[in-house]
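Office hours follow-up: a student asked to see two folded examples consecutively, so here they are.
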Amino acid sequence: MSLPHTSDKFAQQNPVSRNILYTGNFPTLHIQYKPSETQNRSRHPISHLIITEIRELRSRNYNRAVFAENKKAKFDYEVIESYEAGIQLTGAEVKSVRNGGANFAGARVLLEAEGASLIGLNIQKYKHDSREDFNPSRTRKLLLHKKEIVAIQTKMRSAGLTLVPLKLYNKGSLVKVQVALVRGKKKFEKRELIKKRDSNLELARRLKTNR
């Protein structure tokens, strides 16, 4: 990220250090500088620089964290095309997901006329949630555009593909779900994947032993 032209000269005359610190879902850009005694800090372009760069960082997809992954689906299927979907969660569920309380075991996507739903995603009850009727595996609505749903349904019918959930992650302050059109892997493909994984584990063990 380059400094604006209005503050290039000032930045050259005064040491500037920039550190991106992550708090929650948004990164904050901290700029440290030492203005001369005769300069008014509040009126100098460097103040505008701080505001501009913090806003720019917040508008990007920095610090994207993956909360849960469907590892079984990645092993069993070949991903053909993926989509990003929103998901309707309660505030307590969002906090539980961010704390690592989500599990994709047994989860699947259901496409109906009224939209898409995620079935079987297990979200542990948040420790400060006082509701007694909490259902960890309730059906949750996925937020996809109608044209995306139509395109997905068309590809599923024409190419014999399946729609599966792959991972939960954050995008800014929102929780998103990656869903994908997939095709089942052949047995020899799975064997090759296991062989490659075992080989990598063996190599890692050797490197660790030789240290």
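And the second, which I mentioned at the end of office hours:
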Amino acid sequence: MNNRQWYYAHLRWAVMVEGKEGLRQWEEAVHIFLSGDREAAFQRALEIGHQGERSHEEGRRWVESRLARIVRLDCLGADQTEFQVALGSNRATEHLPFEYMFDPEGSEPEPPYYQPLAVRHARISRGGTAAAIRFGPDSSRPTGSFRQGQNGKNEANTRWGQIRVSKGAKSS
């Protein structure tokens, strides 16, 4: 019998800058996943958090995003079919009169801003002195490319946006 249950993990990373600046900001995310028990769920939350750590250079300063803590770990039960994640509230930056009518049916959701990149199939080509790698689930239909940029920085262009890969960045 499968006794796995859904867990909600609220994770917090500290963005740390080398030198006097130190802590720049906090980054937070919620992950929902299946696990056999609370201890295994805690270990999975730690694994997810460490996978989210990253580092890069900004000029001469080294910047790291470090897992700071698992803020919350809740068991949601085994029979859940949908979840709600409250994102808080924001002060309005525009003025709308009370009579304003919203049109949620007529609006399109924003495209995904985060998509884990996994190179399953890659095609490598050499053009000039820089190598280019096209990646995606099938190399004949790539979803992105990787190349060395003109300024010497490594860049990955995907259908979700551009990613810069810096010295010391982790890969999974």
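Two things to take away from it. Residues 21 and 125 are 41 Å apart (CA to CA). Residues 5-77 form one domain.
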